[in-house]
Amino acid sequence: MHTAMTEPRPRPKPFRDGASLPxxxxxxxxxxxxxxxxxxRLLVGVAMLAGGWSGAVTGIEGVALQIFGWVPSITxxxxxxxxxxxxxxxxxxxxxxxADPGEGPGCRLPGDRKD
Length: 115
Fold this sequence. Notes:
This protein is mainly alpha-helical.
């Protein structure tokens, strides 16, 4: 087995003033789209691409659908919208922070003792 898999994960070191970053589960802090919005964006993007590729919409409108249909498709798959990020908006539900940052999900390691 690889040594990185058997060694314990290093704990985050506090900053000079004693404050440390709160722990979050892997990937919990990234993304600004809710699950329903992701599905809706993906469906709209696929419909736009299908309309442009099938010939149901022709001319400049069909070309625009073929080009701009990728935007909702990619943001739906990624779960992150750059426009939302610029505006500081998120459709994801916020999680309540744990009372102690070390008590949050993904922060306690196997074998850690509670002091």
